[in-house]
């Protein structure tokens, strides 16, 4: 028998950990892709338990009297839309159910096209009309521009603009809405001169300027009632303001939006996004466990082999 053939026949089979070390990592990438894509087409609608900050934001809106006047600052851009739009839609439905009167503005120069689209879809139109599948709450109605809401538009200036709205909102926006309608012709704007004249401030904030600047420049000074929604990475920066009650509520990232949707009673993109996050996290955890099992089992096998080899020499 040839020496090479003899050595191949007598060689010990590879241990299972050694075989798995050559595992094609593309299978993990495929599993992650499926975890992201499948819930978008087949929503699991896993229960999203709202955290205390999200529940506090909901309670602040829920406590509003009918026809309350609310200022909504939409300070985000297309990149942050996936995290913040679900909250915006949920809170807008909540506000419209309370028949709140809305003044909408933005301090981000990237935001106006996005804000105007959302106004057309959620304020001029309806979010949850009668007969909406899976929704049992009060239906909303189309709002009328310059009657039920006023779109003030964009003003640059960052913190200076925010401070100006705290002292004289009308001056900041030249006494007019974005379409040129004088504010004195809008009945619900009568008596509103500054931010403290509103019953609640709702901040949809992706960064600077945003919720932090509202707290620092006007919130504490005028003791405003404010709730905010932010991206997940900004939650740790803003949560101290909730703990000190400078923000009455804080909705953080996709998970917070899903929790708010759960409280409002209409599941949407936040719930679907939370499904993606949850399943994706499960895939990551399983991959970590899988890798650690291979590592420690392989190390134990090598140690046993070393001990057996040493014993044979003695």
What's the gist of this structure?
With 314 residues, the protein is of the alpha/beta class. It is built from eleven helices and six strands. The protein has two domains: 14-41 and 275-313; 52-266, MTH777-like (Rossmann fold), CATH 3.40.50.
Describe the sheet with the most strands.
Answer: 6 strands, parallel
Give start-end ranges of low-pLDDT stretches: none
CATH architecture assignment of the largest domain: 3-Layer(aba) Sandwich
What's the total count of β strands?
6
Descriptive report:
Helices cover 52% and strands 11% of the residues. With 314 residues, it is α/β, with parallel strands linked by helices. It has 2 domains: 14-41 and 275-313; 52-266, MTH777-like (Rossmann fold), CATH 3.40.50.10160. Helix 3 runs antiparallel to helix 11. The longest helix is centred in the last third of the chain and has 45 residues, at 269-313. It is elongated and about 90 Å long.
List the helices and strands and how they pair.
Blueprint: H1 3-10, H2 16-20, H3 26-41, H4 52-62, E1 69-75, H5 81-97, E2 101-106, H6 112-124, E3 149-154, H7 159-172, E4 200-205, H8 211-222, E5 226-230, H9 235-243, E6 249-252, H10 253-264, H11 269-313
Parallel strand pairs: 1-2, 1-4, 2-3, 4-5, 5-6
Helix pairs in contact: 3-11, 4-10, 5-10, 7-8, 10-11
Keywords:
six-stranded parallel sheet; alpha/beta; 2 domains; Rossmann fold; 314 residues
């Amino acid at each position: 028998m040839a020496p090479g053939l003899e050595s191949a026949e007598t060689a010990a089979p590879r241990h299972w950990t050694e075989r798995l070390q050559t595992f094609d990592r593309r299978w993990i990438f495929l599993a992650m892709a499926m975890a992201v894509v499948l819930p978008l087409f087949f929503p699991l609608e896993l229960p999203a338990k709202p955290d205390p900050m999200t529940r506090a934001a909901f309670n602040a809106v829920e406590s509003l009297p009918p026809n309350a006047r609310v200022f909504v600052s939409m300070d985000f851009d297309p990149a942050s839309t996936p995290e913040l739009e679900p909250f915006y839609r949920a809170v807008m439905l909540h506000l419209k159910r309370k028949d709140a009167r809305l003044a909408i503005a933005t301090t981000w120069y990237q935001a106006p096209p996005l804000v105007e689209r959302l106004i057309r879809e959620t304020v001029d139109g309806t979010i949850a009309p009668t007969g909406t599948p899976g929704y049992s709450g009060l239906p909303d109605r189309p709002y009328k521009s310059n009657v039920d809401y006023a779109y003030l538009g964009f003003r640059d200036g960052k913190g200076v603009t925010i401070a100006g709205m705290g002292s004289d909102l009308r001056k900041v926006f030249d006494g007019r809405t974005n379409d040129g309608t004088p504010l004195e012709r809008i009945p619900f704007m009568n008596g509103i001169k500054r931010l403290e004249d509103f019953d609640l401030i709702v901040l949809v904030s992706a960064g600077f300027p945003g919720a932090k600047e509202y707290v620092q420049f006007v919130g504490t000074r005028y003791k405003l009632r404010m709730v905010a929604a932010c991206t997940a990475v900004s939650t740790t920066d803003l949560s101290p303001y909730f703990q000190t009650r400078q923000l009455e509520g804080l909705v953080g990232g996709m998970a917070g939006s899903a929790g708010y949707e759960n409280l409002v009673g209409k599941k949407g993109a936040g719930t679907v996004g939370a499904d993606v996050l949850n399943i994706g996290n499960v895939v990551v955890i399983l991959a970590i466990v899988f890798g650690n099992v291979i590592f420690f089992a392989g190390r134990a096998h090598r140690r046993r082999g070393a001990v057996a080899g040493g014993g044979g020499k003695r």
